[in-house]
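fyi for ur records
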Amino acid sequence: MTGNVHGAGQPPAGQEDKLPGPATTIAARAEPATLDQPFDGDSLYSVRAAVAAHASDAGIGENRVRDVVLAVHELAANAVRHGAGHGRVRLWATGDGIRCEVTDPGPPPAQADGDRPGAGVPDAAQWPVEHGHGLWLVRKIADQASMESGASGTIATVSFRAGTARTTT
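which gave:
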């Protein structure tokens, strides 16, 4: 699959330009992304579906596609829950696998807790663990993972090699 994919749940008008752009991203310095999709809390399903399709198309095996989808979903969900509530997923096919980048433009605007999207709505299935298990899991299943955060947002990058399964010992 090639080209940009844009689905439901794009950022509100005027916020597209506030997302970290290609000039500020690590992976974007090489070649155009095979997937470039904005997201918010309502579009995480379409992000998972697009990532699965692109990872499979890039030669990632079925079990590893699940790992890629899980890692990208966790990073995107963190951007929705702890960041500005929206962001962008980019994916590149590399010579030996894929590189995925999840960006968000920074912390949410100053609002009362009840005004934040999703505030006050309990999670459907609370995990009986401390916060932070998602990023731990991303680091365990990705072949490489990095994250840079600052006042202008967060850039999280994960890489997966085709035909390999990372051991979690």
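Residues 44-109+129-169 form a domain with the Heat Shock Protein 90 fold (CATH 3.30.565.10). thats all i got for now
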